[in-house]
């Protein structure tokens, strides 16, 4: 039976009966609201042809986003066209509102390349410092979890205490984007980020909504002067770091991150390739690589003392300070302590913090990287 229905009526019925059942209901609601502004939305679905859809595509690509001030992305238009195509499929098969799907005959905008935005060391330090001193203690824990576990934003915000086993270090995700449940291993740092909150026996871990976190993230990046960094980029950063560990194979990484298709993880294989080059070139034994990987620079700060001496403080280690009557002597003292600590930790197989993780509120221009193996030279930092 044929039914007369306008595009507007079809979109509204689609939202009530189909979108409401989807996990991405909020995102589809936004896209539907945009499609309702279409100049041809009041035409009957049966009268819509491919030229109508092509004009919508071209018009949207010329518009500017009110939030970012930048042109609407091709990815956004592709998603809107996919929703519109689904609407016409339902209209044809189930509602009898049209005879064909005109969207299928229209070229979609070229899909943009996948984002490969990585955090710089400076950005990592800035973000963690900002979040650690944010009035909302949850923000720091959310960012650390994203970087340590590769969980998606929605998965983090839906975490519940009854699904977290801090003793075993497991976060159970009963519902994910892919529609399958997943157990995510929690590193020591991820568990510490959770325990700094008020641990409960049940209930939501975080009170942030998706829009609330999006707003907090936007304000933070603006204040820090960080450009073109999305919260979802933390997931890419986490996947990259898991690949760089060199201890996990691709299947183990996929089990942690929840990627259903291994093709989605191919973008990270170049990280492993760069390490294979070193092995092929014979740059040293595994033991030497482990040792050199431990002896890395750490952030430090140099200050004159009241007694007229120089103090060099290594920021990631509590009470690690070097003193001397000159800058070189103070730096050498701090280097000796850092080197001894790192070698001892390697011998005893005890963990050491990665650089740049525990900075306090310090004027960044005063911070320098202390290399435990480099010649002492510090005059420029005083």
TrEMBL record:
<dbReference type="InterPro" id="IPR002104">
    <property type="entry name" value="Integrase_catalytic"/>
</dbReference>
<dbReference type="InterPro" id="IPR035069">
    <property type="entry name" value="TTHA1013/TTHA0281-like"/>
</dbReference>
<keyword id="KW-0233">DNA recombination</keyword>
<dbReference type="GO" id="GO:0003677">
    <property type="term" value="F:DNA binding"/>
</dbReference>
<feature type="domain" description="Core-binding (CB)">
    <location>
        <begin position="5"/>
        <end position="92"/>
    </location>
</feature>
<dbReference type="InterPro" id="IPR013762">
    <property type="entry name" value="Integrase-like_cat_sf"/>
</dbReference>
<protein>
    <submittedName>
        <fullName>Site-specific integrase</fullName>
    </submittedName>
</protein>
<keyword id="KW-0238">DNA-binding</keyword>
<feature type="domain" description="Tyr recombinase">
    <location>
        <begin position="114"/>
        <end position="281"/>
    </location>
</feature>
<dbReference type="InterPro" id="IPR010998">
    <property type="entry name" value="Integrase_recombinase_N"/>
</dbReference>
<dbReference type="InterPro" id="IPR011010">
    <property type="entry name" value="DNA_brk_join_enz"/>
</dbReference>
<dbReference type="InterPro" id="IPR044068">
    <property type="entry name" value="CB"/>
</dbReference>
<keyword id="KW-0229">DNA integration</keyword>
<dbReference type="GO" id="GO:0006310">
    <property type="term" value="P:DNA recombination"/>
</dbReference>
<dbReference type="InterPro" id="IPR050090">
    <property type="entry name" value="Tyrosine_recombinase_XerCD"/>
</dbReference>
<dbReference type="Pfam" id="PF00589">
    <property type="entry name" value="Phage_integrase"/>
</dbReference>
<dbReference type="GO" id="GO:0015074">
    <property type="term" value="P:DNA integration"/>
</dbReference>
